[in-house]
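All the exercises in this workshop are built on plain-text protein records. The record below serves as our worked example for the rest of this section.
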Amino acid sequence: MNEKDLKETFLSSKTEFVGKIITVEQWRVSLPNGQEAGREIVKHNGAAAVVPVDSRGIVTLVKQHRVAIDRITLEVPAGKLDAPDEDPFLCAKRELEEETGLVAGKWQKMAHVVTTPGFCTERIALYLATDLTQGRQHMDPDEFLNLVKMPLNDAVMMVEAGQIEDAKTCLALLMAHRILNQPSYLWQEGAHSKASFKDAYPQAKG
């Protein structure tokens, strides 16, 4: 089937709810066969998430309670864009410093992914951050979390064992692990040579 034979065409929308984080709309669309259907759409500004890995191969994660699922989760530092047109990189730097106190000297954008395309417009930019220096956390007043530091290899094993369930965290950790396990990987912006990679990440293999 041709791609154009799959396309749904937007016809109209009605706003049902406007909140601080999301807007919920009812859409009418035209289906490929010419019939009409309804779609419930959640509009979201987007977000950025960061995998901060230090020179020993240690990743910093955040542990927090997510009331929507009534569960404590282990996640990479992340946060929503202040506006739909905010640069995700600026958001990533802000959230990393606010949640962990870390400042990164080197950054690599790994991906820009959609989270739940069946009903939500949210896209999350995923970054790898290295060359870290520790500063002071300055979280939002309604933000309560603990920092958890562990070898990146251990975090990946937790993903594979189903002990980390947050989707953005799973993908970001697996991508960061793959990148740091490529001996030929050269940081963009001229960050590392092959020799300095081995020196900086002695635990990256295995």
